[in-house]
């Protein structure tokens, strides 16, 4: 009998849509609004702090929980921006990006056969990591704004129906990629009550915590009394400091949860790049003006791309946070988002991501009428994308 050459847990995961569309973008010389990383660099002072740390000999393994200086900076930052008191010695673990943190949390809290509830469209590593730990995903779709909802919303009955006696974790992502939804305090409090009823822990992915657009305000779930004891906060410096290649992330959790998460982390990566930890501590201590300017800069980019997409005839959902715009493509006569995005990259010269890949099989059709555009790009790049959309995008048929 022949045996498959690879394990079942990876059999579902081929080349990601990001690799496919980046390759297509390169082939067609397209402006790449697909991948969600900035095409500009992080603050000079932070880059200099990393170079200094390397020169000063901060080059051996960090301790597994993370350099104390960085854990203290994470705690100070949490108190400064989110009103969450954090003990750097018992509540923080530094990880290699939020990506590792998410896997560590699921490894620590979820057994094979358990269930994890999360919203669609989802960040793709949630789906893979739920599979890796042998659990089953229960997806709950976010619905687009409509006549009765000013923002993306979900059906409370649908959310409750996803919970059961096997549910261990609810994954929340606020601000949300790719809808830009920022969960409100009221929503979070009600979610907290539901999680208490089913004794479920919350994994709150907040990597876009500083990219929100007033009047929307990021509320850290763990700062709410109803959620404080059961919430594990995951974030990283990638988006906040435009340093996605550094992969410095962290988990903040109540001490008993932090202890078990650290048991997973110590055997996943053990520790994260030491000199970058030193520099990330400096980044988190930047003055308020840095964080205000980041949000203001992204607001201007959002307006620029929203305006261009509207002018090109797309219906846009205005994001309250993150650096993505979902646009309704149904008026253009393509069978689905994949066909639209392939046409866009090869004929129009603009790469976007087909969001149906961020849904499970049951709700995939909900993503097929949209395309995701990233606006974490310089003005010249956004303007060139808009110029191409205006001159080359026309409805089919
Ligand atoms: C929602 C979400 N979570 C996590 C990550 C990964 O973060 P990191 O680069 O810190 O691993 C991303 C990156 O795009 C993201 O969009």
Molecular structure report:
The protein has helices spanning 8-11, 17-28, 44-55, 68-82, 97-109, 124-132, 156-162, 185-197, 255-268, 274-284, 288-311, 337-348, 379-392, and strands at 31-32, 92-95, 115-120, 136-141, 167-173, 201-205, 231-236, 249-252, 315-317, 324-328, 350-351, 370-374. The longest helix is centred in the C-terminal third of the chain and has 24 residues, at 288-311. Helix 8 (185-197) links the parallel strand 5 and strand 6 (201-205). 48% of the residues are buried. The mean pLDDT is 97. It has a 7-stranded mixed β-sheet with strand order 2-8-7-6-5-3-4, sandwiched between helices. A 3-stranded antiparallel β-sheet has the order 9-10-12. Strands 1-11 form a two-stranded parallel ribbon. It is built from 13 helices and 12 strands. The protein has 397 residues and is of the alpha/beta class. The protein is 40% helix and 14% strand. It folds into 2 domains: 8-37 and 289-392, Aspartate Aminotransferase, domain 1, CATH 3.90.1150.10; 44-285, Aspartate Aminotransferase, domain 2. It binds pyridoxal-5'-phosphate.
Question: Can you give keywords for this protein?
Answer:
three-stranded antiparallel beta sheet, 397 residues, Aspartate Aminotransferase, domain 2, Aspartate Aminotransferase, domain 1, globular
What topology does this entry show?
Layout: H1 8-11, H2 17-28, E1 31-32, H3 44-55, H4 68-82, E2 92-95, H5 97-109, E3 115-120, H6 124-132, E4 136-141, H7 156-162, E5 167-173, H8 185-197, E6 201-205, E7 231-236, E8 249-252, H9 255-268, H10 274-284, H11 288-311, E9 315-317, E10 324-328, H12 337-348, E11 350-351, E12 370-374, H13 379-392
Parallel strand pairs: 1-11, 3-4, 3-5, 5-6, 6-7
Antiparallel strand pairs: 2-8, 7-8, 9-10, 10-12
This protein binds pyridoxal-5'-phosphate.
Residues 36, 97-99, 123, 173, 177, 205, 207, 236, 238, 244, 247, 249 line the site of pyridoxal-5'-phosphate.
